[in-house]
């Protein structure tokens, strides 16, 4: 019997370096738990690496990923480069050679799910991608294994630490968006180019991966409705607070009567809810199963060490299976390949929600009466009305209305009508309300 599993690491950046460090610092406990060694024997990087907190004496470092993929001694290829260029090539070639693969690459899995997962099913190698969603939170393992007897009705989560840090700073520290973003960048919670995080794209990548797992199929990333947080203003945070809510960027999906919903947008969550208590760069994901009911997982959603923890967890699971000669204990996704079908996400027009509408008006009382009349005429519910004291920017008063539950198509049409009324100084801001 083999005494050691050999790992080839592609990429020694934030996650790659953390992974090598964890395997070395915790090698004693890993060996005690598994009965064998998991050793990085080769690493590919184009970066200087000798400053890292890793002992490279037993690791052959190369600048070519082909050296890793083609090394016959390597059992597990770990792709930690990111993107969908060289990363895709590494994963597909490793599977073609029958090697096992571990990755944290959510962008690749979301955009090329069919190609990657089909290759994983067809390969003799095993596949781990726990680190692609929720950093150190083992949410993929929970859905694949823990909830494997449940019908998943839906999930809702704060799955981007950068966006959550910014919204928390705007809520707790009363910062405006650009000050909060600058602080996130200074503390290492946001990249120099934060587009994917603040525009909701990173969250949408993770929503697709969780939908594939939760709803037993392959969903199309291009069908996810995506809105980021750049349009959230301090007045929205303040009004939400007065109404008893906080604003969070949520990734959500559910299986409804009409079909599957998959969306990313800022949401009002009740101030006393568990999601509202998730602050700073932390993540939390609530999964609802038809037998388990509501569950919530919480933890660090990114960062070198938490993400390395998920990468190494996958390596250990794969290594145990390789050592036992068990080639496919848990499938790459939740269903057998013959049951893996392409699935469709409903257009946003067809969802139903309650809504927060924010108005900037010149004469508040006239506006409130006109809004009430418009709602009454359309037989629509107003749940709550709130306003900020005094004049705000542009000599406007700020009002917010919480609507009853209605179809998105109807509220969007209604907003167009409201915007033609004379009291409106600026476009109306809509934020969906989390039930
Ligand atoms: N950072 C996190 O907290 C986190 C959390 C969850 C998932 N992830 C995912 O983990 C993956 C890695 O992220 P990261 O933050 O570790 O990125 P990173 O710090 O940029 O590391 C990527 C490394 O790969 C190297 N690289 C680029 N092209 C290469 C090539 N052809 N051959 C060998 N090495 C190459 C890069 O070198 P250069 O810098 O010189 O280009 C860099 O050192 C991504 O898919 C990311 O989405 C990251």
Radius of gyration: 24 Å
* Largest beta-sheet details: 11 strands, mixed
Helix content: 25-40%
Characterize the overall form. Answer: elongated
Ligands present: NADP nicotinamide-adenine-dinucleotide phosphate
> Span between N and C termini?
54 Å
**How many domain units?**
3
What percentage of amino acids are in beta strands?
25-35%
- CATH fold name of the largest domain: Rossmann fold
Please report the number of helical segments.
15
Unreliable stretches covering 5 or more consecutive residues = none
Describe this structure in words.
- The structure is a single chain.
- With 435 residues, the chain is an alpha/beta fold.
- The protein folds into three domains: 4-135 and 304-341, NAD(P)-binding Rossmann-like Domain (Rossmann fold, 3-Layer(aba) Sandwich), CATH 3.40.50.720; 139-300, Dihydrodipicolinate Reductase, domain 2 (2-Layer Sandwich), CATH 3.30.360; 349-433, 2-Layer Sandwich (Alpha-Beta Plaits).
- It contains 15 helices and 19 strands.
- It has helices at residues 14-25, 27-34, 65-69, 86-96, 106-111, 113-122, 139-146, 161-172, 177-186, 195-198, 201-214, 234-243, 304-323, 364-377, 408-419; strands spanning 4-10, 37-44, 60-62, 76-79, 100-103, 127-128, 152-158, 217-219, 225-226, 245-255, 260-270, 282-289, 293-300, 341-343, 352-361, 382-387, 397-403, 406-407, 429-433.
- Strands 7, 9, 10, 11, 12, 13, 15, 16, 17, 18 and 19 form an eleven-stranded mixed sheet that branches.
- β10 (245-255) and β11 (260-270) form a beta hairpin.
- The protein is elongated, with a radius of gyration of 24 Å.
- 46% of the residues are buried.
- The model has no long low-confidence stretch (mean pLDDT 95).
- The structure holds NADP nicotinamide-adenine-dinucleotide phosphate (NAP).
């Amino acid at each position: 019997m083999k005494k050691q599993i050999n790992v080839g690491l592609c990429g020694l950046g934030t996650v790659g370096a953390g992974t090598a460090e964890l395997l070395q610092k915790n090698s004693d406990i890993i060996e005690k738990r598994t009965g064998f060694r998991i050793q990085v024997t080769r690493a590919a990087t184009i970066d200087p690496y000798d400053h890292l907190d890793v002992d490279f004496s037993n690791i052959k470092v190369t600048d070519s990923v082909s050296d890793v993929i083609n090394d016959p001694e390597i059992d597990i290829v770990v792709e930690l480069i990111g993107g969908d260029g060289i990363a895709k090539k590494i994963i597909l070639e490793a599977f073609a050679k029958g090697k096992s693969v571990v990755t944290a690459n959510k962008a690749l899995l979301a955009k090329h799910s069919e190609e990657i997962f089909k290759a994983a099913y067809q390969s003799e190698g095993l596949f781990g991608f726990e680190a692609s969603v929720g950093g150190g939170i083992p949410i993929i393992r929970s859905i694949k294994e823990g909830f494997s007897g449940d019908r998943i009705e839906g999930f809702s989560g704060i799955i981007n630490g950068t966006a959550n840090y910014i919204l928390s700073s705007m809520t707790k520290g009363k910062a405006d968006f650009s000050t909060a973003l600058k602080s996130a960048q200074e503390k290492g919670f946001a990249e120099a180019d934060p587009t994917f995080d603040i525009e909701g794209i990173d969250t949408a990548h993770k929503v697709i991966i969780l939908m594939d797992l939760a709803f037993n199929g392959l969903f199309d990333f291009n069908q996810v409705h995506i809105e980021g947080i750049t349009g959230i203003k301090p007045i929205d945070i303040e009004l939400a607070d007065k109404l008893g809510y906080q604003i969070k960027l949520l990734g959500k999906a559910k299986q409804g009567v009409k079909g599957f919903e998959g969306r990313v947008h800022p949401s009002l969550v009740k101030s006393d809810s568990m999601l509202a208590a998730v602050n700073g760069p932390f993540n939390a994901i609530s999964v609802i199963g038809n037998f388990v009911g509501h569950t919530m997982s919480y933890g660090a959603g990114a960062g070198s060490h938490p993400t390395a923890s998920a990468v190494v967890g996958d390596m250990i699971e794969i290594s145990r299976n390789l050592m036992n000669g068990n080639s496919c204990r848990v499938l790459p996704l939740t269903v057998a390949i013959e049951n893996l079908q392409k699935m469709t996400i409903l257009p946003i027009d067809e969802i139903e929600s309650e809504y927060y509408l924010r108005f900037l008006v010149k004469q508040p009382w006239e506006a409130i009466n006109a809004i009430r009349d418009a709602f009454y005429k359309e037989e629509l519910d107003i749940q709550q009305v709130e306003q900020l004291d005094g004049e705000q920017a542009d000599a406007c008063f700020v009002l917010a209305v919480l609507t009853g539950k209605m179809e998105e198509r109807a509220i969007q049409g209604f907003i167009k009508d409201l915007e033609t009324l004379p009291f409106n100084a600026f476009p109306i801001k809509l934020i969906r309300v989390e039930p």
